[in-house]
Amino acid sequence: MNKPKSPVRELFDKAERKIGEPLEEIVASRTYTDLMLALSKIKGKVGGTIADTASGAVEKVLHVAQIPTRSDVRRLNRQIVELATEVRSLSHKLQEARRRAGADGERQSVTRKSPGSRKKPVAKKPVAKKRKKTTRRD
Q1: Dist CA 69 CA 121 (whole Å)
Q2: CA angle in degrees (0–180, nearest 5) for 16-21-25
Q3: Phi/psi of residue 113, each to 5°?
Q4: Taking every pair of C-alpha atoms in the chain, what is the biggest distance, in angstroms?
Q5: What is the pLDDT along the chain (138 residues), one digit of tens a residue?
Q6: From CA 105, how far away is CA 90, in angstroms rounded?
Q7: Which residue from 43, 95, 104, 120 puts its CA 20 to 30 A from 76's CA?
């Protein structure tokens, strides 16, 4: 069931075809594609330069206000990851050393006395000398 088009719709379709067909030919042409590509490259270079300049200015303002920038946060995140990796590695090494020491300790306990059973000499504390109070007479 096709409804008949309203007169306004028919007028619109005629106008659109008169304008749309030539525009479609232009957009489909090789010249248009080359022009859009060139403009896109120019926009990228100019836009990138403007964005870099604006970004640098914003970073300076944020640093003056002592607010961390995105690059500061990224750098800190990298440092945290590096530290976490190092801690994990040290933790594994410590567990391995404890495991080895535990195995060695079991062997030593059969042949030697434990280090805590030996008596250690107690160091004597030095006695502080008493100072005489002198009065000053002028």
Answers
A1: 59
A2: 150
A3: -80, 150
A4: 127
A5: 577 788 899 899 899 999 988 888 888 889 989 988 988 888 877 777 777 777 788 888 888 888 888 888 999 999 999 999 999 999 999 999 999 988 776 665 555 555 555 566 666 666 666 666 666 655
A6: 22
A7: 95
Say which amino acid occupies 65.
Answer: A
- Give the pTM: 0.38
Q: How far apart (Å, rounded) are the C-alpha atoms in residues 73 and 61?
A: 16
Q: Output the six-digit token pair for 50.
A: 């403007």
For residue 110, give every residue at least 6 positions away whose Cβ sits within 8 Å of its Cβ, in sequence order, or none.
none
Residues 6+ apart with CB under 8 A from 76: 68
Q: Can you read off the two tokens belonging to residue 128?
A: 């502080």
Euclidean distance between CA atoms 109 and 111, whole angstroms? 6
